[in-house]
Structure formats: C-alpha cells, structure tokens
Design brief:
The complex is a heterodimer. By secondary structure, chain A is α+β, with helices and mostly antiparallel strands. In chain A, 37% of the residues lie in helices and 19% in strands. In chain A, a hairpin with a 4-residue loop joins strand 15 and strand 16. Chain B is mainly α. Chain B folds into 3 domains: 188 residues, no CATH class; 186 residues, no CATH class; 116 residues, no CATH class. Classes of the chains: A alpha+beta, B mainly alpha. Chains A and B meet through helix 1, helix 8 and helix 9 of A and helix 18 of B.
C-alpha cells in the first residue's frame, strides 16, 4: 500500500513537471497583451510610479523609455490588444495588489466600444497573462461567453494545437535576453514604420453621447478601484484622428470624471497635438499608432503634464531601478539599429556600423576592380581593416570591433562559421559541394542573405539584442557602385 | 456531456470521489443520480423517456415474476407472453416514433407521390434522443431474460433504474446484459475503495480510449469528411483512402467510447463486457461480427437470430434468418436505406460465403493450398477488410444514391498521380497532421496486434512491463492526447459517431 502510494505520488510529481514544461513551451507568447502582464509580476513591489492601462493606443504611444530616461519616472504600460474596459478594470485590480503608484492612467479609446465580447485572440491576449486567481476567473467570466469559459481558464485547450507552429523562441524564457526579440519594454510596444496620416480637423464638438451600459459600468468600477486604493486616476485620450461619435463619447467620459472630483481627471489630448510637436506626416505608423519618434514627442508632453499634477519622483540613479536602466540601454540600441536601417548613403552607413557590439560581414561580388569609384569604396572599407587591393575577385570579410574575424582572400573554396549569441550561427562559404558555384554565400542560421548580385553586401548582427540588424546592398550599375542602399 | 469534454473531466472525478466517500448503502442512489444528471446534460426532457422505458420494463419484470410464482395454471403462459408483447410494443413504439418516424413518413410519401397522391406534411419536428437505441435494447433484453427465467426480476426500482441508466454505457453501449450488470449493481456496497490494479487498469483503458477518439478518430475524420462531403471533386485514390480511413475512424470512435465506458466503470468497481476485439484482424465476415460491437451482435443473436431458428434449420430458412438479422441490425444503426443496404451486405456476404465454402475447399485441396501459412491468413484478413470497407461506403454516405456515386467514382476515376503530386495533403490534413495520424495508427496497430496474439488488453500488457516502460507509455499517451488531441475552441467537439444510433 505504502509503496504503491509513493509510486502514485512520484508519477504525479513527474507529470506535474512535464505539464509545467508543456505549458511553458506551448503557451501563447504575444507581445501585445500577454508578455506585458507576465513581466509586470516581476516588478519589485511598490516600485512603480505610473501605470498605464488600455489598448494599443496606450502601449504603443506611451514610451516608458522616455519616461525613465528623461524624467526618472518608473512607468509601466499594462495593456492588451484592443483591451476592453472590463479587462482594464481587472488589470487595474491586479496591479493594485502589488503596486501603489502615484497615478493610474487609463486610455479611454476602447471605452467607446459597445458589445459584450471581443474576438477570441483579444480575449486570450487580455486574460492569459494574469496569474490564476479569483480575479482572473472573474476577468474570464467578464470577457467570454459561458460556453467557452472553461477553455479560456484552463488555457491549454486553446494553445495545445500549436505543435505545428512552435519555434525556437517558444523554448526560451521571455525575460532575459529575449528582451530585444520580444520588443517589449515595461509593456511598451515600439513601431518603426512611417506612414503619413491626415491631420485632425479643427472643428470643436461639445455634445455628448451615452456610453454603452457595460462599458460605463466598468469605467466607473475602474475609477472606484483607484479611489478605494487612494491613487489618483487620469482618464486620457491619446492623439489620433477620432470620428465625431467618439469625440461625443469622450465628452461624456469627461462629465463622468467630473462627477468624482478630486483624484479623478480626464484629458483628451487630441486637440493638443500641435503643442506636442506631432507631425502626422512622419510620426505615425498607422491611423492610431505612432512610431517611436512620435511616441517620444507625445510622452514628453504627457510626462510634463503628469509631473505638474502628480507627485512623481525621479528615480534615476537609484540602484533598485536597474531594470529601467537596462531598458534605457536596450531602447538606445533599438533606436540606433533603426537609424542604421534608415541610413541610405554608404559613407554614413559605414560610419554608423562602427560599433563594438556588431559583427559585420562584407561581401563583394562581380567586377568591382574596374568600377569608376573603386578608390572611394576601397578607402571607405579600409577603415574596417578591409583591403580591396589584396583581392582580385569575389571576396568576404567578417569584422568585429576593428578585428577581421575572417577574410576569404582570393580562395575559391572556403567555409567559415561563427556562433553568435546563444543560438545563432553565421556561416560564410563558397564552392562547397558539387552543385555550388564559387560565389560567396552568407547564412545566418538557415537563411541565406544577399541583396545585390553585383556589388557590395553588408550583413550586420547585433550581439546585444542577438538579432540581425539588416543585410544592405550597394549595387554596381553601369560600372559605378551606387552610394545609395538598395 | 461527451467523454472527451472538459465537463466530463470534472464530472467523472467528482462522481467517483463522492461514490467512495458516502455511506456504502447510498452508492447506488448516487450513481443513479449521477447517471440522470449525465443524461440530462444533453436535454433534460430526455429523462422522461428513459424513466418511462425504465418503468415499463420494471413493471413488466415484476409482473412476469408474479406470474411465474403463481401456481402453475395453463393460462399463465399466454399472460406472460402478453406482458412481454406489451412491453416490447411500448418500448419499440417509443423507439420507432423517435427514430423512424421520418423514415417511414418519407417512404410513405414516396409511395403516395408514385400514386399521384398529395404528400403528408408533418406538423412537428422530432429530435432523436441520444442513446435511445442502446438503453431500449438493454431494457428489452432484461424483460426477455426475466420472461425466459434466466434472471430474477429486480425488486428495487432504483437499482433497476440504475441498470438502465448507468452513465458510462448509457448513450453508446456496451449494451449490457441484465445477468451481468444487475448482479454487480446489487453489490456496489461491497466494492473496495482502494484497489490499485483496478483503478490504474480502468484509468489506462480510459486514456487509451481518449487517445483513439481524440488523436486518431477525430483526425481521420477531417480527411474523410473532406473527401466524402465533396466526393465529386475526388478520384479513386482519395475515395479509397477516405473509405479505409473511415473504417479506422469509426472503429476508433466507437471502440474508444466502449473503452472509456469500460474503464470508467472499472474504476468504480463494475466490470462491463468487452465490445470490440480487434475486428479488423478477422479472417471472415462471420468472425468480424464476433469481434465488432459484440454487445449488439450478441444481443441480436440471442434475442432475434436464435428465436427465429438460427442455423439449426433448413438452409433457406437459415439464410433468411441471417438476412433478417442483418437487415434489422442495419436499420438499428440508422433510419435510412443506406444503413439497410449496409446491414444487408453483411448478410449477403455470409450467405455467399456459406454457398461458396465447398467450392473454396475443393479448390484449395486441388491446388494444395497451405491454410496454416501466414500469407493465407493475411489474405483472408485483407479480403475481409476489403469487404467490410465496401460496405462502409454505404454506411458513411448520406444516401444510397451518394454511395452508388462514390463507388462509381472509385471504380472509374483512377488517378494514381495524386500519390506523388502532394494533392493528398490538401484534404484537410497537412504533412504534420498526416505524420501524426500515421504514427498514431501504427500505435493502434501494435496495441491491437498484441491483443490479437495474446488476448490481453492494453492495461494488462502494461501491468506486466517494468516501471520505466509503463510510465513512458502512460506519459506518451497522456501527452499524445493533450498535445495532439483534437479539441479546444478552434475545434468543434465531435460527438461519437454511434450517438446517432
């Protein structure tokens, strides 16, 4: 009896370990809703100054890196894709269990919405990040129809079918060096794209429109949560181009905030875009989401507003906020990498590539010796220890921090590889195997990179982010190497 | 509440937990309550039907017992027959009303239209109560057993109600015999709580059943449904593959239900009869029916075929008895002519097999065929499997006309190129899914082969193995179900096929 009982206990212990591992690998790893909440639990208790709730309007546009770097505000974007206000309500409730910030900020975009439930992926993104608790059960109940609730609570019925989609990142923990990959900094989600948007109109709408009953109930519930916790709450609208109906809803929300008086503020930032210096032609990624340059402008304005109204300390230099310093470092790298991608001219490009954390592969193909600007290109590359004069045909150089890691010279056959980070492998080869031609081939893991067949290719890998920055190509056209990137 | 639903994953442990914790004398009442809850989870109104059937067969049993105890009088026997007749009429009447009304009306209307008379319009819709064919036959079997005197009439109405409604086998069998199940239900008080072998054995059977259903049957169904629901798009190869996969699907689907039922009952200390015994290793159609849906085929044997005269009569009558039994069996499976043809085919196979037996023997003797060699037996298995598959076309097609069309395409639209042009991966299962299906079918083959050779079910085989192998097999099964099972919001839970019968 005892032996059998022990056997059963051991069996279930092993089963539990395996189930835990299964969960870790198979669970959804969305940046726009799950990571933010999971990482939130890793924040030190009572360490955050401002927590922001809401949909992508909030976590794309509120730049926590700028809040930290320029104002010393420990902010956290605790949102989810299309986050309905009932999910914001439960996120606020969850946040207040471990934090007492100087201010809670709720973006009100989705409060305009009506309807009981959002689509399945949004239900998942706004509930799965929460730890299992009574509030999580309540959040799932509020988010989903009764027939589907058990599946959302157990989670695995929704993710077990991912066996065909698993990638390397599924087997890694999100919180360490996946920082750059996950693109998630204190809940923030950054965009780099630039898509010109129409400017907002100048007409003023003063009328109000009644909110959906459920949305208003949860909005008031969220306000009550903040009041009960003794934390001021700011209801805000991030600048975008709203339709008139939405503006009427926002006017109604301002009335509601007014009913509560002290500690409950409302501000629609829409009319203030010019004060912020927002340029709708370059600061937006799409109609509602700024790129990181736009988010920097908005966040500076928001930070000034918050500093003026709430008691927000400056934590810069405080060792307990190391993760914020790390975030700032990663943010700088993110911006640096993006600037390289947006640099088009070869001289500028090469100047920016000079970074000790980059491994760069230069490979040149075709008849470059006779190109008209040979000397100019040769001199530019010489700064990296590359001597074009020493080779006569296709050639490859791998360089890091001024050291040439590999140079093919005039060899027709070669194969060199270098492990990068923990999981990536850079391979440079030529003439290997019967079918292969004797041209340089550059692989990062299984993918081959080459932007131009005739000209110079430059592949850059960032060792900090453990990611490919880009592979750029400068083509030789009509006997001259173009200085502009392809 | 399906066995492969989250509801059942909660329901069953709760039922078992309470079953062993409450006072022993209350166990059968708890099981009865749980069984009705289980059945009412489909539709609460169905409970009235099962209760009605229970009351009718209970009363007839009690009446028959009273008539048997009465001093021997010449008129007693006709009374008993009348009691059985009324009981059969009431129960079969309910079954016919709910299951065959549409079928009868449609055929009647067809006749009327031939005669040029206006069709009769039905004024209401009839929903087929789940499991009605199963519990009606189980209850009728009891009545006939009492009439024959092979079992005692059950006095306790609640225990009898539990016999009719015992939830593991209520909606899709096995169709239990009163002699086996009532006797066990009368002693549920004596079942020990802690019996390691019993509980783990039952759990293994349930796991293996869930694997068959969720990993194999529901995955094969994707391919089968794609091919059959758009059969006009496909040629011989796809339709043959779909038919073979349907054979495996329906086997895994139905056998899995029985396995889960047997396993669940085993955990509670009740032994249900085996319902499937490696049917696709059968070497003749006759043997196939000794291995396929054993509880139903033996029911028909005992309560229809033998009373008709069985095989101990003239050849003509014997063939007639066979045909009647299999035609009725076909009709039991579904109120449609294609089911009747399906049943009829199995009858015809056996009649022809019997007629050809002397010729076959003579040929084998003339050519000195070694009947004991592996290839001879394999040939028998393959021929039987092919015949069974041919009949499955009628079973799976939605109508007789469609079945004929599918067989027409199978025989005329040969398209061998689909074996190499990857188009087979476009029938709902991509390369990964096909690999999973192939590996799980290989697992099924191994488990069934071991069963066929040793007679031992998977729980017994695993029990004999060393710990690491046993646990490895269990974890593989468990994670096979969790990861590769077809379930979750993206997948609309498929009911077990036999629920419709």
């Amino acid at each position: 009896m005892i032996r059998k009982s022990v056997k059963i206990i051991v069996f279930f212990l092993i089963l539990s370990v395996l189930l835990l591992r299964f969960h870790q690998v198979f669970r959804f790893k969305f940046n726009d809703g799950i990571y933010g909440m999971e990482q939130f639990y890793e924040e030190k208790e009572y360490s955050l100054d401002a927590i922001f709730f809401g949909s992508s309007h909030m976590y794309v546009n509120v730049n926590t890196s700028v809040l930290w770097k320029e104002y010393g505000i420990a902010g956290y974007d605790l949102g989810g894709s299309e986050q309905p206000v009932w999910n914001s309500y439960y996120y606020v409730k969850e946040a207040l269990k471990t934090q007492k910030p100087s201010v809670l900020v709720l973006d009100c975009y989705t409060v305009c919405r009506s309807g009981d439930y959002v689509d399945e992926s949004r239900i998942i993104k706004n509930t799965y990040g929460m730890k299992f608790s009574r509030d999580k059960i309540e959040a799932v109940k509020a988010s989903s129809p009764e027939s589907d609730r058990m599946g959302y609570l157990l989670e695995y019925p929704t993710y077990h079918g991912r066996y065909g989609d698993l990638t390397r990142s599924d087997f890694r923990k999100y919180a360490d060096t996946d920082f750059m990959r996950s693109n998630s900094w204190k809940g923030q989600y950054l965009h780099t794209g630039i898509h010109s948007q129409p400017q907002p109109g100048t007409e003023t709408i003063t009328e109000t429109a009644e909110l959906d009953e459920r949305s208003e109930r949860y909005l008031r519930g969220t306000i009550e949560l903040a009041r009960e916790a003794g934390v001021p709450i700011l209801l805000m609208v991030v600048p975008y181009v709203p339709n008139p109906e939405e503006t009427r809803f926002y006017n109604r929300m301002e009335e509601i905030a007014g009913e509560y008086g002290e500690g409950v503020d409302f501000v629609n930032f829409n009319p203030r875009w010019e004060e912020m210096g927002l340029d709708f032609s370059v600061d937006y990624m799409d109609t509602c989401h700024m790129n990181y340059q736009g988010s920097e402008k908005f966040t500076r304005y928001l930070a000034e507003y918050l500093k003026a109204r709430y008691a927000l300390p400056d934590h810069r230099g405080d060792d307990t906020y190391q993760s914020y310093d790390d975030m700032a470092r990663y943010y700088d790298r993110f911006v640096y990498n993006d600037r390289i991608r947006k640099t088009t001219e070869l001289p500028d490009y090469l100047a920016k590539l000079w970074n000790p954390d980059y491994v760069t592969v230069f490979f040149i193909k075709s008849d470059y010796k006779t190109m008209s600007n040979y000397n100019e290109v040769r001199d530019l590359l010489a700064g990296y220890g590359i001597s074009l004069d020493e080779v006569s045909g296709d050639a490859v150089w791998a360089v890091q921090n001024g050291n040439v890691l590999f140079a093919s010279g005039d060899a027709a056959e070669y194969c060199w590889h270098q492990e990068l980070g923990r999981y990536d492998v850079l391979t440079v080869r030529s003439g290997q195997g019967k079918q292969e031609q004797t041209v340089p081939q550059v692989f990062l893991n299984d993918s081959s990179y080459s932007m131009v067949n005739d000209g110079l290719n430059i592949l850059t890998y960032d060792l900090v982010g453990e990611n490919l920055v880009e592979c750029a190509g400068f083509a030789i056209v009509d006997g001259t190497m173009e200085m502009g990137k392809r | 509440m399906l066995f492969n639903s989250i509801d059942f994953m909660i329901f069953f442990p709760v039922v078992v937990g309470v079953y062993f914790l409450i006072p022993r004398r209350a166990r059968y009442l708890w099981l009865l309550l749980s069984s009705y809850y289980f059945y009412m989870s489909w539709n609460p109104e169905y409970a009235l039907l099962i209760a009605g059937s229970t009351l009718a067969t209970y009363a007839s049993g009690r009446l028959l017992a009273r008539l048997q105890k009465a001093p021997a009088r010449p008129k007693t026997s006709p009374y008993k027959k009348w009691v059985v007749a009324v009981c059969l009429a009431v129960n079969l009447g309910i079954l016919v009303f709910f299951k065959y009304s549409d079928f009868i009306l449609n055929n009647f209307n067809h006749m009327l239209s031939v005669l040029g008379v206006a069709r009769i319009q039905r004024k209401f819709d009839i929903l087929l109560p789940v499991g009605i064919s199963f519990y009606t036959f189980q209850a009728l079997g009891y009545t006939i057993d009492v009439y024959r005197g092979t079992v005692e009439a059950e006095k306790n109405l609640f225990r009898y109600a539990l016999f009719v409604s015992f939830f593991p086998q209520l909606v899709a069998g096995p169709i239990e015999r009163s002699g086996n199940l009532i006797a066990q239900l009368n002693h549920v008080e004596d079942i020990r709580l802690w019996d390691y072998e019993r509980i783990t054995g039952g759990a293994v059977l349930m796991l293996w059943g869930l694997f068959q259903k969720m990993v194999i049957a529901d995955r094969a169904a994707v391919f089968v449904n794609t091919a059959y629901n758009g059969y006009w798009h496909y040629g011989s190869i796809e339709l043959i593959l779909a038919t073979v996969l349907f054979a495996l699907q329906i086997y895994c689907d139905f056998a899995s239900y029985s396995l889960i039922a047997v396993g669940a009952a085993r955990i509670m200390g009740i032994r249900l009869m085996e319902n499937f015994d490696t049917p696709y290793f059968a070497r003749s159609i006759r043997e196939f029916w000794r291995r396929w849906h054993i509880s139903l085929s033996s029911w028909f044997r005992d309560y229809l075929y033998i009373p008709l005269g069985g095989s101990r009569c003239s050849k003509l009558r014997y063939y007639g008895n066979l045909m009647i039994t299999f035609l009725v069996s076909g009709l039991w499976h579904g109120a449609s002519w294609n089911f009747v043809v399906w049943g009829g085919l199995h009858g015809v196979y056996q009649v022809i097999g019997d007629r050809l037996e002397p010729v076959k023997r003579q040929m084998e003797k003339r050519f000195s065929v070694n009947r004991d060699c592996f290839s001879y037996k394999l040939g028998q298995v393959l021929v039987t499997f092919a015949l069974v598959n041919f009949s499955w076309v009628f079973f799976r097609a939605v109508s007789l006309k469609e079945a004929v069309s599918i067989l027409g395409r199978i025989t005329t639209k040969w398209n061998l190129w689909v074996l190499s042009d990857q188009s087979l991966y476009r029938l709902g299962l991509d390369v990964t899914e096909v690999h999973i299906l192939a590996i799980s079918l290989l697992t099924l083959f191994i488990v069934d082969w071991v069963k066929y050779k040793t007679g031992k079910t998977i729980d017994l085989v695993l029990r004999e193995q060393v710990l690491w192998f046993r646990w490895l097999a269990l974890f593989a099964l468990l994670f096979g179900i969790i990861i590769y099972g077809m379930y979750g919001p993206a997948y609309s839970a498929a009911a077990f096929i036999y629920f419709q019968f």
